[in-house]
């Protein structure tokens, strides 16, 4: 049996580059950018007016001119209109391109307009005020967004502003989620007193959808021949197989033997952790990876967040966020010599600390607690007592929390 740290390192040794693909920019939210976004022209592309008002030449103010004849009105998108004399101005709107003959914008709030004449109501006008100058944000050819980052609404905005109708993104692996066992029935079926509805596979699929990964679902009955055939087919057609259940030593756990017979070699089996001790990880010679999680819902959920998602992010070349830590809010005792992933509720102190409030459930099968908790806190091995005020790493699974 290996440690959590050893399991993490062995999984990270199995990184693959799944290539890139172009997709429509409006569909790229949540994917990983595989190219730099470059400014195709100066931004802003012209001296842009930032306030509604009048445009004047500052030299006129220096000469003591306080009233200006309005020559014309210019809206955003109009061709610039120049003045001919120092005592003229252009009534101009936010977003308009600044005419070359003027250099200062005075707000409507600071003038009085009568009979097409604008009279200043204040002093202290600054040259060049209320302008967003050409190239102030980026010059043509400069990088606006670097690759290897998550595409956010802000990145979508940048892509649109430079005319990138398609974005190059990292390809996601082809993933299938396999559940097994005759005790499982479909969600819309009525289970017998000894059966339960399938939930783990749907949970995994829902989590992966948050990462824009659309996984397929497959259920295998307790039949050794069908088990071997289905696993063999999946190895040929998917990059990653995520399994939930069927990897223990029970009489009807046919999956370990099927994996061996189809050429999947175990890299490790069993990790010194709770929940998720029976976690199995292996690789086929064609590079397909198998993450076989224990069937207990909390164990599956924890292993997915602790091992698979970090692997997925690493394959995407995604610049990782720093690890997140929290302060334990109360004493906690855990005696088995295992790394313990305790469910917690998160809150924040007035000093900005993340606080972890332990919520101890009824074991790996107590999935109801997951709806009321926010993260797992990772408590190290070789200790039994964990004191209030100590700091430990956390693995949030509610994305809005951190």
If you had to describe this structure to a student in words, what would you say it looks like?
The structure is a single chain. With 402 residues, this protein is an alpha/beta fold. It folds into four domains: 4-18 and 172-315, MoaB/Mog-like domain (Molybdenum Cofactor Biosythetic Enzyme, Chain A, 3-Layer(aba) Sandwich), CATH 3.40.980; 20-43 and 136-170, Molybdopterin biosynthesis moea protein, domain 2 (Alpha-Beta Complex), CATH 3.90.105; 48-132, Molybdopterin biosynthesis moeA protein, domain 3; 324-396, Beta Barrel (Beta-clip). The protein is built from seven helices and 28 strands. It has a six-stranded mixed beta sheet with strand order 7-4-6-5-9-8. A six-stranded mixed beta sheet has the order 16-13-17-21-20-18, with helices on both faces. β24 and β25 form a beta hairpin. The model has no long low-confidence stretch (mean pLDDT 92).
List the helices and strands and how they pair.
Layout: H1 4-12, E1 20-24, E2 37-38, E3 48-49, E4 53-56, H2 58-62, E5 67-74, E6 88-92, E7 104-107, E8 111-114, E9 117-120, E10 131-132, E11 143-145, H3 153-161, E12 166-170, E13 175-180, E14 184-185, E15 196-197, H4 200-209, E16 216-220, H5 224-237, E17 240-244, H6 255-261, E18 264-269, E19 273-274, E20 280-284, E21 289-293, H7 297-315, E22 324-328, E23 332-333, E24 339-348, E25 354-358, E26 375-379, E27 385-386, E28 391-396
Parallel strand pairs: 5-6, 13-16, 13-17, 14-15, 17-21, 19-24, 22-25
Antiparallel strand pairs: 1-12, 2-11, 3-10, 4-6, 4-7, 5-9, 8-9, 18-20, 20-21, 22-28, 23-27, 24-25, 24-26, 26-28
Helix pairs in contact: 1-7, 4-7, 5-6
């Amino acid at each position: 049996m290996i440690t959590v740290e050893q399991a993490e390192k062995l999984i990270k040794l199995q990184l693959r580059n799944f290539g890139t693909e172009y997709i429509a920019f409006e569909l790229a939210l949540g994917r990983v950018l595989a190219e730099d976004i470059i400014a195709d022209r100066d931004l802003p592309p012209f001296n842009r007016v930032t306030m509604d008002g009048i445009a004047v030449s500052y030299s006129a103010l220096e000469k003591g001119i306080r009233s200006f004849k309005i020559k014309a009105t210019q809206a955003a998108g109009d061709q610039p209109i120049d003045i001919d004399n120092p005592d003229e101005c252009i009534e101009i709107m936010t977003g308009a391109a600044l005419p070359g003959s003027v250099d200062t914008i005075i707000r409507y709030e600071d003038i009085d307009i009568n009979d097409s004449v604008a009279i200043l109501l204040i002093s202290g006008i600054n040259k060049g005020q209320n302008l967003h100058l050409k190239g102030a944000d980026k010059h043509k050819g400069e990088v606006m967004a670097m690759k290897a980052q998550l595409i956010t609404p802000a990145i979508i905005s940048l892509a649109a502003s430079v005319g990138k109708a398609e974005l190059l993104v990292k390809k996601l692996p082809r993933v299938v989620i396999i559940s097994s066992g005759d005790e499982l029935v479909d969600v819309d079926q009525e289970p017998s007193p000894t059966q339960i509805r399938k939930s783990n596979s749907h949970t995994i699929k829902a989590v992966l959808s948050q990462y824009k990964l659309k996984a397929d679902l497959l259920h295998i009955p307790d039949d050794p021949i069908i088990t071997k055939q289905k696993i063999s087919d999946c190895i040929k057609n998917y990059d990653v197989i995520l399994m939930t259940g069927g990897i223990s030593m029970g009489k009807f756990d046919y999956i370990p033997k099927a994996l061996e017979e189809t050429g999947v070699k175990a890299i490790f089996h069993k990790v010194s952790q709770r929940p998720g001790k029976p976690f199995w990880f292996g690789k086929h010679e064609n590079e397909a990876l198998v993450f076989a999680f224990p069937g207990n819902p909390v164990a599956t959920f924890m292993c997915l967040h602790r091992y698979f998602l970090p692997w997925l992010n690493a394959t995407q070349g995604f610049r990782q966020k720093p690890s997140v830590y929290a302060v334990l809010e109360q004493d906690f005792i855990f005696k088995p010599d295992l790394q313990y992933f305790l469910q917690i509720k998160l809150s924040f102190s007035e000093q900005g600390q993340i606080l972890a409030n332990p919520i101890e459930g009824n074991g790996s099968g107590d999935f109801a607690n997951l709806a009321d908790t926010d993260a797992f806190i990772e408590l190290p091995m070789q200790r039994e007592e964990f004191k209030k005020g100590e700091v430990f790493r956390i693995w949030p699974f509610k994305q809005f929390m951190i």
